[in-house]
Amino acid sequence: MKVKVGDVVVPGDIAEEISRVKSETKCVLGPGLRRFSENVIVCKSGIFRKKNPNTYWVDSHQRKYIPVRGESVVGVVVNKSGDIFKVDIGASELASLAYTSFEGATKKNRPDVKLGDVLYAKLKIASLDMEPELECVDSKGKQSGMGVVADDGFLFTCSINVVRKILSPKCPLLKTLGKEIPHEIAVGMNGKVWLKARSIKETIALANAILATEYITNEETNAMCCRIIEALQEVN
Amino acid sequence: MALQYKTIHPVKYLRDFLAHNVRPDGRGLLKFRPMALNVRSISSADGSALVKIGNTSVICGIKAELATPKAEEPDRGFIVPNVELSPLSSSKFRPGPPSEEAQVASQFVFDVILNSGCIDTKCLCIVPDKLAWVLYCDLVCLNYDGSVLDACILALMAALNTVSLPEVEYDHEKSTTTVKTERVPLKILSMPVSTTHAIFDDEVLLADPTCEEEDLASGTITVVVSEGKLCSVWKPGGSPLTESQMDGCVDRAKNRVSSVLDLINTALKSSS
Amino acid sequence: MAAMAEDQHVLRKMFCEFDVLSCPDGSAMKYRNRSCLRPNKLIIDKACVEAVYRPKVGQPRVADKTKEKMIGNTCSSAILSTLYPRTSVSIILQEMQNSGGLMACAINAAYLALIRSGIAMKFLVAAVTCGITKDDKVILDPDLNKVKDCHTELMFAFDSIDFNIVAVDSSGQYTEEQYQKALSLCKEASNEIFDFYRNLVKKYACCI
């Protein structure tokens, strides 16, 4: 079936519009699109989108994380072997993290990382054919918010769409809730979110609010935030 | 040189051959390998046959035993086919419990027996609810070189044709059985013939593929024809085929029947 | 009588619910009248597509291995496996109720789970079952009562681009004409399943 921008697409659909793009102009095919000889074929189900001038992609639902270089992720340390920590970031394979990739870490001054610790880190290497590798320092050797998060708090997994949604500047969720409920949050692009508020009640309320955003629009999110804040004030 | 080329680029190697409408073993794309059949090869079995299709060889031995029929089907006997793909047939297989492929093959053979109705299991019943024959059909692959399902069906049918069962008397009062010496040949109602094609590069059909071709293929299709009717079209996934390609497979399967049946008949005649 | 005849060419109602399971990457629960399956999927290390089929009761048996092979191969023909090196896609199917057309239902459910998981695929596949009755009529998607009147059952799976045949399974004996008739009937009916897929994606697209 031939499809237009904005349509709901399923694998096997032909994105005719892209074939008509002049051959000399540059055209970017995002996730969910592939070229088969003359045609561009959709290979994921979701919504076909376009950004001018010529960037096309398919927005689809996804729970499995496929590592991408430079993305920030949240993971759990599951193994420690020699100089390397193994971190579960929800990809098909555990990511490795060298102990020297922390701010100020040297051979003598090892970072204090225990099994079961939750980390906020950046992907240094991510390739389909290789094990992903993490780092907890930026290009200037500074921590810049990365590293082991506090011992308490709450870690949960949601679909990757939810993460993209709450991180998008248009989404009011964290802004609105943050004004009334002070909290710490680490949102990984891998669909793992670590959260800590003043009380357990508030933490659970925030976590549920994040999970609920998956199926609602931004306007509905605003209304939901107000309801949550009211409800929490009543309880307190 | 050719050998190195084949090891490094097996797909390209085959593609080069197919571009000239010929296969590495010299056959045309839709030509079958020569078959050889020997019946009554195992004297201790109640029926047996040895089949060679090209390099693929399968031996079938049938052993008849007495048993009590199932309570839900008191007037029926049993046929139990079992395909064994032993490590000696190919380095693909490891010793131990039957591999998934062997299990799938056993189930396929069983389905073909059932669908084609080649044996009426009612004939295997001696006394309802008391005594019936069980035919253990052991199919052992001696050399695995593709199209094993075809070879299994052929070996099984040839072997079934050689089976003769002794007459059995059952004494209802003492519930004892006496096996007599007279033997009656087993009644075979139909002769299913199986034909396999492999799909290479999503479009080229190869009849009667060898092991190498099967490994590189993107799918296989097996058609079983019995008495002019289809009794199984089995295409477990793989590349999609157009209707005309499918029809071609069915036609070739139908055309092959007479030559296979001739082979079985000649083998049976020469051995008796 | 006319209504009866029409009834025989209509697929039973299909239902599907996504994300019934929380742990796997994609899951779908699909009811087809009363046969329902619950597949889910996880990716582990390796480079293949495998299906695990769990019967309603007891341990998986030899016959279930054949089903696994059928489902696994049918799914791997569409998945762009080259995009996922060193991974394996496990499709786990749990039979929940069988009222005819189990194989087709299993394949469709597996595809729905694949759609939901966001795995890249070349095309979609729809599987349809039909039966040939003793009086030589071809009926679409027979339920358990109708199956009793059928001497033959055929299952076809079609791709969504050219409606070519991805998988065929059959039981019973039939002539070539009957086969052709069943094929064309199933091909027509597969459209309905592709529409069903698309509508489901539409229904769940609001959250993207």
UniProtKB/TrEMBL annotation, chain A:
MF annotations from Gene Ontology: RNA binding
InterPro entries named in the record: Exosome_RNA_bind1/RRP40/RRP4, KH_dom_type_1, KH_dom_type_1_sf, NA-bd_OB-fold, RRP40_KH-I, Rrp40_N_euk, Rrp40_S1
One example of a Gene Ontology biological process annotation: CUT catabolic process
Gene3D superfamilies in the cross-refs: 2.40.50.100, K Homology domain, type 1 (3.30.1370.10), Nucleic acid-binding proteins (2.40.50.140)
Similarity section: Belongs to the RRP40 family.
Localization in the cell: Cytoplasm; Nucleus, Nucleolus
Domain K Homology: 153-199
GO cellular component: cytoplasmic exosome (RNase complex); nuclear exosome (RNase complex); nucleolus
Superkingdom of origin: Eukaryota
Domain Exosome complex exonuclease Rrp40 N-terminal: 29-63
Protein name: Exosome complex component RRP40
Keywords from the named record: Cytoplasm, Exosome, Nucleus, RNA-binding, rRNA processing
Ligase in keyword set: no
UniProtKB/TrEMBL annotation, chain B:
Record's keyword annotation contains Aminoacyl-tRNA synthetase: no
Lineage: superkingdom: Eukaryota
Subcellular location as annotated: Cytoplasm; Nucleus, Nucleolus
Domain Exoribonuclease phosphorolytic positions: 32-166, 191-255
Biological processes, Gene Ontology terms: exonucleolytic trimming to generate mature 3'-end of 5.8S rRNA from tricistronic rRNA transcript (SSU-rRNA, 5.8S rRNA, LSU-rRNA); nuclear mRNA surveillance; nuclear polyadenylation-dependent rRNA catabolic process; rRNA catabolic process; TRAMP-dependent tRNA surveillance pathway; U1 snRNA 3'-end processing; U4 snRNA 3'-end processing; U5 snRNA 3'-end processing
Stored InterPro entries: ExoRNase_PH_dom1 (IPR001247), ExoRNase_PH_dom2 (IPR015847), ExoRNase_PH_dom2_sf (IPR036345), Exosome_comp_Rrp42_subfam (IPR050590), PNPase/RNase_PH_dom_sf (IPR027408), Ribosomal_Su5_D2-typ_SF (IPR020568), Rrp43 (IPR033196)
Record key words, sorted: Cytoplasm, Exosome, Nucleus, RNA-binding, rRNA processing
Pfam families associated with the record: RNase_PH, RNase_PH_C
GO cellular component: cytoplasmic exosome (RNase complex); nuclear exosome (RNase complex); nucleolus
Main location class: cytoplasm
Gene Ontology MF annotations: mRNA 3'-UTR AU-rich region binding
Recorded family membership: Belongs to the RNase PH family.
Protein name stated in the entry: Ribosomal RNA-processing protein 43
UniProtKB/TrEMBL annotation, chain C:
Subcellular location: Nucleus
Gene3D superfamilies in UniProt: GHMP Kinase, N-terminal domain
BP term (GO), one: rRNA processing
Domain Exoribonuclease phosphorolytic: 58-119, 124-187
Pfam families: RNase_PH, RNase_PH_C
Keyword set, alphabetical order: Exosome, Nucleus, rRNA processing
One Gene Ontology CC term in the entry: nuclear exosome (RNase complex)
Primary localization: nucleus
An annotated Gene Ontology molecular function: RNA binding
Family classification: Belongs to the RNase PH family.
Stated name of the protein: Uncharacterized protein
